Amino acid sequence: xxxxxxxxxxxxxxxxxxxxxxxxxxxxxxxxxxxxxxxxxxxxxxxxxxxxxxxxxxxxxxxxxxxxxxxxxxxxxxxxxxxxxx
Length: 86
Description:
The protein is 58% helix and 23% strand. By secondary structure, the protein is an alpha+beta fold. The chain has a domain at 26-85. The chain has a two-stranded parallel ribbon with strand order 1-2. Residues 1-6 have low confidence and may be disordered.
C-alpha cells in the first residue's frame, strides 16, 4: 500500500511540474481599442498603458505568465498609434 501511495504522489508531482512548465511557456495579451481626436493619440496611448499596469502585474504574479498590453488608438482622421504600426 505504501508503494502505491508513493507512486501516485510521484505521478501527481510530475503532473504538477508539467503544468507549471506549460504555464510558464504561455503569454497573455490585453488589447484596448479607443477612438480619439488626432491630437490626443499619443496621450491616449499612455493612459491605456497606465490603466492596465496594475492588472498586468497581478496577472503575472498569479498565473506566472508574461503579459503585455496593446493599446490600439485610432484618431478621427485614421491616425494610428505607433504601437499599432508595429
